[in-house]
């Protein structure tokens, strides 16, 4: 097993080195002059950015000071996303590159041919005029002027330095705009706060008195070195504006300890709903001290559902621990949460990972609310 792990690690490292080498070559090596300031800056970035990404990934697991984690997180994680989209854009550019070379070569051939004909006509006229002027006064005919004009073949765009540089810069520049623009737009989408998506779910067992009941579901907030208190406040404000009857926070609230992220989570105390706010653990809570976080969200006014349920006016609301809790003996227990309930009543289950759907069906759940997938946050990794 250890040998397999080492082989996989070496393969991943080799892949990352190869991808960084490729990106450096296309964005820096092919577009800048050797020894130039731009090439030196690009080469330094090609070494520094992957080191920051490794630092961002390792620092939290190594227990580094939270301030150091925050310092590494923004550039490190953003570069991971930028590397993905820069690579995809550059690979598309490989198909564009030969087409652009061909277009430039055709334009050069057409321009060179037209220039050669014009030069021939002009030279011939000049030569004839010169011959006429030099004709002897006696009237003896001068020897006819002979002019041979050969238009030089234009250099291939594949070997012409200026054209090769133009193609490299055009493709590299377009790839940089596409890749970095995509990451920038995604970053803006996170920092502006969540968008509300309204979905109507019909439940056959729901009594008429509960029709129109509104549940605000939020998942995968991932408070951590990148997203902090301001992000939490944006989410709270967005949820409260919907005026829900009930709020469900379905896991992966945090990426860190209560000691580091407790202040970032404090705005959750401002969540407002007629029937309260409820919480279930996600897999990331078990990387961050799940028991401490369950206690902390309870202090903030949320109601943790640890393999438990409560009765609402028109349905049963149940929650199960995330399957990652099995490593601590705190995994999901459907029998405890749902086993003895009245199945004539509608039921809603909060469970972080959609994969538990089979257990939910077996226990007669009408609606499961989950997160975990992030909706495919890094295309094409949906």
Short structural description:
With 382 residues, the chain is an alpha/beta fold.
Describe what you observe in this structure.
- The protein contains 9 helices and 8 strands.
- The protein is of the alpha/beta class and 382 residues long.
- The strands form 2 sheets. A 4-stranded parallel β-sheet has the order 1-2-3-4, with helices on one face. A 4-stranded mixed β-sheet has the order 5-6-7-8.
Offer a few descriptive terms.
382 residues; alpha/beta; 4-stranded parallel sheet; 51% helix
Order of helices and strands: HHHHEHEHEHEEEHEHE
| Count of helical regions | 9
Assign the structural class, choosing from mainly alpha, mainly beta, alpha/beta, alpha+beta, or little secondary structure: alpha/beta
End-to-end Cα distance: 29 Å
Q: Whole-number average pLDDT?
A: 87
Helical content band: 40-55%
Shape: elongated
Strand order of the largest sheet: 1-2-3-4
Strand content is: 5-15%
Taking the sheet with the most strands, its summary is: 4 strands, parallel
Low-confidence stretches: 117-138
- Give the tally of β-strands: 8
Gyration radius, to the nearest Å?
Answer: 34 Å
Summarize the topology.
Elements (H helix, E strand, L loop, with lengths): L1 H28 L7 H25 L4 H68 L27 H31 L23 E4 L10 H13 L4 E5 L7 H8 L11 E4 L9 H10 L3 E2 L3 E4 L3 E5 L14 H5 L7 E5 L6 H6 L4 E3 L13
């Amino acid at each position: 097993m250890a040998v397999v792990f080492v082989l996989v690690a070496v393969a991943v490292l080799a892949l990352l080195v190869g991808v960084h080498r490729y990106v450096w070559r296309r964005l820096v090596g092919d577009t800048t002059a050797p020894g130039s300031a731009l090439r030196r800056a690009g080469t330094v970035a090609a070494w520094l950015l992957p080191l920051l990404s490794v630092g961002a990934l390792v620092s939290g697991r190594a227990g580094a000071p939270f301030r150091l984690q925050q310092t590494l997180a923004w550039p490190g994680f953003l570069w991971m996303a930028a590397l993905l989209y820069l690579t995809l854009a550059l690979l598309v550019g490989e198909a564009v590159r030969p087409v652009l070379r061909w277009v430039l070569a055709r334009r050069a051939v057409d321009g060179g041919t037209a220039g050669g004909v014009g030069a021939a006509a002009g030279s011939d006229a000049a030569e004839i005029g010169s011959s006429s002027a030099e004709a002897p006064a006696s009237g003896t005919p001068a020897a006819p002027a002979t002019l041979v004009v050969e238009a030089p073949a234009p250099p291939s765009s594949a070997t012409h330095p200026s054209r090769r540089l133009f193609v490299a810069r055009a493709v590299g520049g377009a790839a940089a705009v596409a890749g970095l623009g995509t990451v920038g737009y995604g970053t803006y989408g996170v920092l502006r706060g969540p968008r509300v998506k309204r979905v109507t779910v019909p439940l056959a067992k729901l009594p008429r008195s509960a029709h129109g009941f509104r549940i605000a579901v939020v998942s995968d907030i991932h408070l951590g070195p990148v997203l902090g208190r301001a992000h939490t406040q944006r989410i709270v404000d967005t949820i409260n504006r919907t005026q829900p009857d009930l709020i469900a926070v379905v896991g992966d609230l945090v990426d860190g300890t209560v000691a580091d992220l407790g202040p970032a989570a404090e705005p959750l105390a401002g969540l407002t709903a007629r029937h309260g706010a409820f919480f279930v653990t996600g897999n990331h809570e078990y990387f961050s001290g799940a028991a401490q976080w369950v206690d902390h969200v309870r202090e903030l006014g949320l109601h943790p559902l640890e393999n438990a349920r409560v009765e609402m006016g028109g349905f049963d609301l149940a929650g199960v621990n995330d399957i990652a809790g099995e490593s601590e003996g705190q995994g999901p227990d459907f029998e405890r949460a749902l086993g003895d309930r009245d199945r004539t009543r509608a039921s809603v289950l909060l469970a972080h990972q959609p994969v538990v759907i089979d257990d939910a069906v077996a226990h007669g759940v009408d609606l499961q609310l989950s997160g975990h997938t992030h909706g495919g946050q890094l295309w094409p990794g949906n």
